[in-house]
Amino acid sequence: MRAWEKNFRKVEPYIPGEQPQFENMVKLNTNENPYPPSAKVAKELEELSRQTEKFRLYPDFKSRVLVDALALHYGLSSDQVFVGVGSDDVLSVAFLTFFNSEKPILFPDITYSFYDVWAKVYGIPYKCPALDEEFRIRREDYYGENGGIVIANPNAPTSIAEGLDFIEDILKHNRESVVVVDEAYVDFGAASALPLLGKYENLLIVQTFSKSRSMAGARIGYAMGHPSLIKAMNDVKYSINSYTMNYPALRLSVAAIEDDAYFRECCDRIIGTRERTRKVLCRLGFTCLESSANFLFATHGSVPAKKIFAALKERGIFVRYFEKPRIDNFLRITIGTDEQMEKLERALVDILGQ
Amino acid sequence: MRAWEKNFRKVEPYIPGEQPQFENMVKLNTNENPYPPSAKVAKELEELSRQTEKFRLYPDFKSRVLVDALALHYGLSSDQVFVGVGSDDVLSVAFLTFFNSEKPILFPDITYSFYDVWAKVYGIPYKCPALDEEFRIRREDYYGENGGIVIANPNAPTSIAEGLDFIEDILKHNRESVVVVDEAYVDFGAASALPLLGKYENLLIVQTFSKSRSMAGARIGYAMGHPSLIKAMNDVKYSINSYTMNYPALRLSVAAIEDDAYFRECCDRIIGTRERTRKVLCRLGFTCLESSANFLFATHGSVPAKKIFAALKERGIFVRYFEKPRIDNFLRITIGTDEQMEKLERALVDILGQ
Prior knowledge:
Chain A has 10 helices and 12 strands. Chain A is of the alpha/beta class.
């Protein structure tokens, strides 16, 4: 080991889903949207191509156009909105900003696998109460003293959503720490905690353009909360990188948010495909947890998930498999187009020999 | 104070230069390039506008197209290149990755004012040896024990560059910690430490697309160093945000890097304007430090900098003024187009009553 390597930060990085690049592959492994972004995004890019002189300038470090568009969309004031480079950036800044207590923060044992990575990299103590037998969050586990709470709703990779009463119950029991509700998948059928914002100043809601808004490639996430939370996050953000949102991200995200009709149409279509796919999977011997997300979390009655995962991969169909306790017999299957899901069905019939 | 606010991270955020939005203003305050990016960038955007379906997918988290293009450009291998959201992101990751010693890191008292902000936010001990009377770095100050070294070359806001022998001397005296050379302004006339990379495994060079490549709005920075440094930075990066570089940034930066002729033409033009401007300023009673950057650091013989700063602002001309010890009688003036610098000259003649 070289002398200076002793001072390297020790980390266990998050491992993102594979990004394979095959012709005709069916990519159902990273919960991307199967539909392209709004046509307004293409129009905006075309306009941008005639305005490249703007690239020579720094973007607005307050990202006002996007902050204002989101505030308008959600009926908030602009000082209630924070934006970042995907919800990962937003969550990372939230962890760094809010979780500086000696008490552990709490999040479920089975949830988005980045939470413990951030806790480790920033030296935040944490505890992971176990989901119950049916993979649901036990609210009582979040009643005790803590340095903060993070709940994904719907949870991932379980796909299960809890109702507003559940989130409010956790807020009622936690008046002394920040409660982060990660709503990356909320637009696919769950209730957002937005109506609770006026009542709980310690609630932070995080959402993203990567799933329901078909813009994973643009890296845009946002948080909504009390102005004091948003200010604290911005102060930390300005202490790390003042200008995170590049000029195209600002322009394209505003174009996307303004096309609400298209957004709703895509979400509805995905929900329809999800329900059809669930029935197909049941018929093929799978059990799916009840999903409010753009993916299904499924386990087969007789064939191991790992085997199905590998067999699908051989056929050019990529789903997500987690080699982790309790969920290592499940597959997380992103909802694609109807055509993609029919390909999945044919492959599964073939693999399962039905 | 609300209960949870006790756990907020305490920070003193970096304050970026103003981004005023006036018609016909002359913006010489944030060291942006006065020329638009390469025409290839416009062409790439137009193409992108016909491929918006790609936005629905996550970008390649390894940013391979850009890493490979930079490696090719600088004659390095791809495992020697790290990319991030502007050089601020790159430097922030470097601080977090390399500076985990109990010993203080070292950087000059007068330098890029983000260094101490990162040190504070990440809890890194630091010391700031004073520049000498002529605003030059004293190499002996960097010979002692330390947890790391950060040298901006050319330094900012002084604009002064040190030669390769100077950088190598610091490297020779520091075999046990990482030495970061921040070359944000290197393309305007300084020597890059690139030739030293093969010899010093603890050298990290940081550059940016924001100045010489006219793309501050795209947020692209990069670091070059030994594969073990780059891997350590990527591990930390993947522990914070796997996908930092959005799809347009990856595409547009590659287009820009490929147009080397245009890049060199812009740099040469800026250097020419800088030298003409320096003469003008001297004639008007200013003293300018010797600049190898795209800005001049100037002090007037009789009129206080603060007064000139305010008078220029009234006339729609924005330069940078730092209300800080030792440099509070200096102005940092970005080199714009010849036309902009003529406007500056006329305003200064007016203000100084000459």
